[in-house]
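pinging the channel bc i need a second pair of eyes. not urgent but kinda urgent?? the chain im working w is below, pasted from the shared doc
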Amino acid sequence: MLAVHVLGATLLAWWLDDLSATSWFLALALAYPLFRALGLFLPACRLYARQIEVGAVFVPWYTWKVFAATWDVALIVLNPKRKVTSAVVKVPIQTRDRRLVTVIGCLLTLTPGTLALDYNEYDGDLYVHILDTASADPVFAAVAEIEQRLMAWVYPGGGA
């Protein structure tokens, strides 16, 4: 479906005689309702439209999380009286899909104050270095939420 969507958007932008990035993204967005309407009859189109919706929510949500973590780290750094105790914590991961675990690790590493170190595939544990042990519980919740949102994006029908 993605190839059809990209090709259709490219053809629409070409037909409009403007292959700029702006017109291509506009054509991509204009093609979405077509997939949504076709989803009434074709399950593959319905799942693809769902992936677009979940992805469109995931990206700004994650961007907000990065900004919030940046703010937290800045407050830690700028407060000279605050004692910081870093640690490595073991975070359980529900999925066994190595690709998703890799993406989760990358997203955690991109988030200020955390660094994914290792993954134990037998136990399903991800080892994460955190800047401050006071933020250990939110890291568990954040990893679980990232995993849940990624699973909804990659497997919109619920099947893994």
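so The first helix runs from residue 2 to 15. and The CA atoms of residues 7 and 107 lie 29 Å apart. — does that match what u expected or am i reading it wrong
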